[in-house]
Amino acid sequence: MKKIYNKILLALCGCSLALFSFLLLSYKTTIPEDNVSSYEVQSTESIEIDNTTNNLSKPCTTVYSSNISDINEDEQITTISDECQEINSDRVTYMEGFYYEPLSEEIISRIYGISYKDDCPVTYDELRYLNVKYYNFSHKIENGELICNKAIAQDLIEIFYELYTNEYEIEKVKLIDEYGGDDIISMSDNNTSCFNYRTVDGTNKISMHGLGLAIDINPFYNPYIKKNKDGSPYISPKGSEIYADRNNDFLHKIDENDLCYQIFTNHGFSWGGNWKSVKDYQHFFKEIN
After folding, report:
1. What local confidence, expressed as pLDDT, does residue 264 receive?
2. What span, in angstroms and rounded, lies between the C-alpha atoms of 128 and 221?
3. Of 47, 146, 182, 208, whose CB count within 10 A is highest?
């Protein structure tokens, strides 16, 4: 009986040793790399770069896959997620919230037939769309839109940034197309605007605004004034007569002591308030050779 017991014990020990050897061998076995299906990484090569400023924007997610069935025949191994959108390479960003760029199709559709007419001597390529920040009359920060001649785009973006950093108040900065291209309505709403293919108020002469080389700042508080043939004053827009007497002190008045005047003239702009026969206190323009 004792011999039978010893044989059973020996058999059990042999089985235990075989099992241990199998487990040890399995532990040392590695998973083949071919079993890896796909993974997702943040690729530094897919970061969007504004070539004009070298500013980095939101990184794009690049997905790599080794599973051929996951990839269309016409696709590369690397695919860019929908979050990656091409940045206009012609955009010039001066500071955050301050940039200009060529007119997009969306902007062209907004201005065509309103501020931009078929007989406009300035082409779309000669104009620039500007995005700026400013302080409104409640001293709250707003985003504004302007269109100007590309020859003064850099000047205007720098000027508006300097006005912004000094918290200079401008009531509104909207494209004049929001007023149907009507300069009188825009001025009455005290809207600051630039490009508008039109004539000078009360004349048949093409305005500098029609070339995108002039801008009107807070026009209701800084009216356009001239004399009618009978000697009576013509003041535009209507309702701004109380601001025609420039000897009075009031908020938002542009004169030679005003910061707005100083910044614009430092950039080579002329001021309509210095004209002799006509006074256009809202008006700054720059002549380009």
Report:
1. 98
2. 27
3. 146
E-state strands within the chain: 38-42, 49-50, 55-56, 61-65, 79-80, 92-95, 98-102, 127-135, 141-149, 172-173, 191-192, 214-216, 224-227, 233-236, 270-271, 279-280, 283-285
Q: Based on the number of CB atoms within 10 Å of its own CB, is 154 exposed (0-12), middle (13-18) or buried (19 or more)?
A: middle
Model pLDDT, residue 60: 35
Structure confidence at residue 199 (pLDDT): 80
Alpha-carbon distance of 62 to 53, in angstroms, equals 24
Q: Write out the two tokens for 81.
A: 């997620």
Q: Where are the domains of the chain?
A: 33-80, 92-285
Dist CA 267 CA 213 (whole Å): 13
Mean of pLDDT over the chain: 80
Whole-model pTM?
0.70
User: What does the CA dihedral 45, 46, 49, 55 come to, rounded to 10 degrees?
Assistant: -80
What's the average model confidence in pLDDT over 165-171? Answer: 98
Give the pair of three-digit tokens for residue 164.
């912004």
Please tell me the distance from the alpha carbon of residue 114 to that of residue 183, in angstroms, as a whole number.
Answer: 11
CA distance 232 to 202: 14
The answer to whether 52 and 102 are in contact (CB under 8 A) is no
Residues 119-148: what's their mean pLDDT? 97
Rounded Cα distance between 162 and 174, Å, is: 19
Distance CA 206, CA 29 (A): 85
> E-assigned strands of 200-266?
214-216, 224-227, 233-236
